[in-house]
Amino acid sequence: MPLPSPRRPEENCPLCPRLADFRVANRRALPDGHNAPVASFGPLDAALLIVGLAPGLHGANFTGRPFTGDWAGDMLYPALLRFGFALGNYGERADDGLQLRKCRITNAVRCVPPQNKPSPAEIAACRDYLVAEIAAMPDLRAILCLGRIAHDSTVRALGEKLSTRPFGHGAAHRLSERGLTLYDSYHCSRYNTNTGVLTPPMFDAVFDAIKNDLSII
Ligand code: URA
Asked: What is this structure's pTM?
């Protein structure tokens, strides 16, 4: 029997007035785009959940699939293919046929924010959907947070304290009571990759650790 889908924001989600206004403007400016909250991608019975920040305007917001068409996706999806968490080819569009394997991708904020910067209130408003996402994954054993905002929102979603679970690239926070490990990586954004804050070997090392820990692929 298929697993029940987690609650997700409606197409015209009104929770964040600024993001709702931006959505209306984007529907006019980019009429061929998705321009709505971007749903998570991948199977609910996955062992790994990857949490990004928010859709990019011309990427996930346009294509309707997390990280798809975004600069960050050009680093993330090839890594998932290399490590066996994806099958097929990444074609920068939602209908490229790429499939995720043992892995699901979501965002801390489901709607595109102006300048890629959601406010603390917007991150908090979207957190219930992250809570629902985590609760809907019965085989979840690892969460990879891309960047500090994803990390902080995920730690809060799990009811953990940020003071005892600080963000750090390469960190692995064992939440033994939950049978879950929270991994951190710098976000694979254009800024971080262009400035060398995050290099491909650094990103691969995080996936290596996850893959070794999970030993499922
Ligand atoms: N695209 C997404 O969907 N999420 C990010 O965090 C960055 C780009």
From this structure: 0.97
> Into how many domains does the chain fold?
1
The pocket around ligand 1, CB under 6 angstroms, is made up of: 52-56, 59-60, 66-67, 70, 72, 107, 146
Phi-psi region of 67 (alpha: psi -120 to 50; beta: other; left: phi over 0): left
pLDDT band at 115 (very low <50, low <70, confident <90, very high): very high
The reply to whether 153 falls in a domain is yes
Distance 179 CA to ligand 1 centre (A): 27
- In which domain, by residue range, is 157 found? 46-214
Domain assignment present for 107: yes
pLDDT digits (tens, 9 = 90+) for 180-196: 999 999 999 999 999 99
Answer whether residue 41 is part of any domain.
no
